[in-house]
Specification:
Blueprint lengths: L2 H5 L9 E12 L2 E13 L4 E5 L6 H8 L7 E8 L2 E2 L5 H10 L1 E4 L3 H4 L6 H11 L4 H14 L5 H4 L9 H13 L5 E5 L7 H18 L2 E6 L2 H7 L2 E6 L2 E7 H6 L4 H8 L48 E4 L2 E4 L1 H9 L1
Parallel strand pairs: 3-8, 3-9, 6-7, 7-8
Antiparallel strand pairs: 1-2, 1-4, 4-5, 9-10, 10-12, 11-12
Helix pairs in contact: 5-6, 5-8, 8-9
The chain binds iron/sulfur cluster.
The site of iron/sulfur cluster has 14 residues, from helix 13.
């Protein structure tokens, strides 16, 4: 991306992020394995969208593919940022987009940080790569760390990651994502490696900075408690496909897809006494041997005869969409 592209404002009438028909294939012993199969997703400016699902559902690989972070994967479909296609950009152009338009927060702050480099060098690096003078880049790095609640930020630029606690390290990773003033933040399980108390602090911080800066947020998580506290909309992934997208209130009040209902029923609740933990029967299918028809049918408690053969179409429902034959039947008789 050249300087003119970088300075071009994001078109206001296009979604901030629009993903259409995203497929991701990985090399495997038998040839290729389809990890993600036709995902559609959109995030508007200022909107917080959570992408949820069990481990292996494809949510993290989807997030990373948006920025083509895994060179071994074959990615097709369309990823538009502010109306402009970015999937066909060169590596150099993508490097411009990473940091300046999209900030990424990874799950484990310790592996996201270089133990041998100072906090200042790492937080200021996205600006230095864009040609900002060292002194100015460090000054801006300190300002962002200060905004994120790192005390004595200017002094602590000289510290190393091991001198920070887990929560403070995640603030540093967040600062690295924010220092380039992106429009969109992609946070991949940003609280998974933290204890519960620090998780809450980091979530409140994410909530505050995305609101104050008007950022779009794509939050990848398996934790529906996290979703309830921060998201505007929820996309549920199962076996490499998005099976339900809803506004957060109807999703929690009346999830439509049987898999979404299973995920929500499995969330531990302090206000409900249960003798046995609710779980979803069975295990997710191998991505190299997805079942025909609806991929959830071997585990679905309400499967119809057609579910084993025919993949469901996407159906509009109140507050979103769902891919389920049963929902399509219900909608058609309403
Ligand atoms: Fe269950 Fe059929 Fe709906 Fe799939 S399409 S979730 S198997 S009812």
């Amino acid at each position: 991306m050249n300087t003119t592209d970088r300075e071009r404002p994001i078109e206001s009438d296009a979604p901030l992020l629009e993903v259409r028909g995203l497929t991701i294939d990985a090399p495997s012993a038998g040839g290729t394995t389809r990890l993600v199969d036709g995902v559609d997703l959109a995030v508007s400016a200022g909107e917080r969208v959570a992408l949820v699902g069990e481990s292996g559902s494809g949510k993290s690989v989807t997030a990373r593919a948006l920025m083509r972070l895994d060179p071994n994967l074959t990615i097709s479909g369309s990823v538009r940022l502010g109306g402009t296609e970015i999937l066909d950009r060169t590596e150099k152009e993508l490097n411009e987009i990473r940091g300046s338009r999209i900030g990424m927060v990874f799950q484990d702050p310790m592996s996201a940080l270089d133990p041998l480099q100072t906090i200042g060098a790492q937080v200021s690096e996205p600006l230095r790569l864009r040609g900002v003078r060292k002194k100015d880049a460090l000054r801006r790095a300190a300002a962002v760390l200060d905004e994120l609640g790192v005390a004595q930020a200017t002094t602590r630029l000289r510290a190393y990651p091991h001198e920070f606690s887990g929560g403070m390290r995640q603030r540093v990773v967040l600062a690295m994502a924010l220092v380039g003033e992106p429009n969109l933040l992609i946070a991949d399980e940003p609280t998974t490696a933290l204890d519960v108390r620090v998780q809450q602090q980091v979530l409140r911080l994410l909530d505050r900075v995305t609101t104050e800066r008007g950022l779009g947020l794509l939050l990848i998580t398996h934790d529906l408690g996290v979703v309830a506290g921060i998201a505007d909309r929820v996309a549920v992934m199962y076996s490499g496909r998005v099976v339900e997208v809803r506004d957060v209130t109807p999703m929690f009040a009346s999830p439509e897809h049987p898999y979404s209902r299973g995920l929500l029923a499995a969330v531990p609740r302090l206000d409900v006494r249960r003798r046995v933990m609710t779980t979803i029967a069975g295990t997710p299918p191998s991505l190299s041997a997805r079942p025909a028809g609806c991929t959830f049918h071997p585990r679905c408690p309400v499967a119809l005869p057609q579910c084993a053969d025919d993949a469901p179409e996407t159906t509009a429902i109140p507050g979103g969409t769902v891919d389920c034959h049963l929902s399509a039947q219900r909608v058609s008789v309403r």
